[in-house]
Hints:
Blueprint: E1 15-17, H1 22-27, H2 40-45, E2 55-57, E3 62-64, E4 72-75, E5 94-95, E6 103-111, E7 128-136, E8 154-157
Parallel strand pairs: 4-8
Antiparallel strand pairs: 1-3, 2-3, 5-8, 6-7
Amino acid sequence: SDIAPVNSLPETGGWYEFIEYPRFYYDYVSKIPPGQLSLASDVTNNLNNARLRFSINTLTQMFWMPDTGGYFERNVDPDGNVDVDRTLKFTGSFQGANVGKHRHDYFDKHGEGYVGAPVVEVAGSGQNNQINYPKETEDTGDGIGVNSDNRPLNVAINTWRII
């Protein structure tokens, strides 16, 4: 729903003053381990996917609320037994899109030619040859590579059940 629950902040980014939301800041944000926070300068300059994590600016007495809009959420997998390609394993860690290794077959359909005739699809003077060529995806060396799963852009989240 577009209706915000009572006492909530949307994950659409933005700087908030500590004194505006003291319980949220002091009971939660201020307790996040420093290695899991973004630098305030990275958030401001939109570097290192910093906008996906909380940040604390002690000089201005403000905290950054993450902007996770447009990303698919994926639960945190701290032990990496399923999410083996994620290097950072905490809430707000970014993982780029990728295509998992897969195999597909295609048929190469050419006519058998005679001297002087091109061998092109369904052309030539002979019978058609249908040859099944299996193709497996490979790492192209472009920095994207082939990983263990298919995934869209996503950001790690925690799932909490309130009873």
